[in-house]
Amino acid sequence: MGLDDITGRSIGTLEPDCGAAMTKQAADGPARCLSPACRDVLYLLGRGKTTAQIADLLHLSPDELDNLIALLQERFGAADAHGLRVRIILTWGHE
Fold first, then answer.
1. What is the pTM of this model?
2. Hey, which CATH number is domain 3-92, 1.20.1540.10, 1.10.10.10, 1.20.1050.10, 3.40.640.10?
3. What are the pLDDT digits (tens) for 49-74?
4. Sequence-ordered alpha helix ranges (H) in the chain
């Protein structure tokens, strides 16, 4: 099952269209200037996907995903992946 099957979007279009609320606040918030890969991870975490599912969907190794999550945790000031997920949901809600 690919990312298209889960989200209805391809990886290339996931980043610019990751939800109206997220897009609206991204220009001023901690999501600004994120790479497309980081935005894809951010979106999927906010959708409740597990790290294993995200790695599979985005064709990332566990180490690559861990690095992206660490960057996101630093950007959002979260202590761990759970804290990051909470911050995403509190900032943009849960679709």
1. 0.65
2. 1.10.10.10
3. 999 999 999 999 999 999 999 999 99
4. 3-7, 11-14, 20-26, 36-46, 51-58, 62-76, 81-92
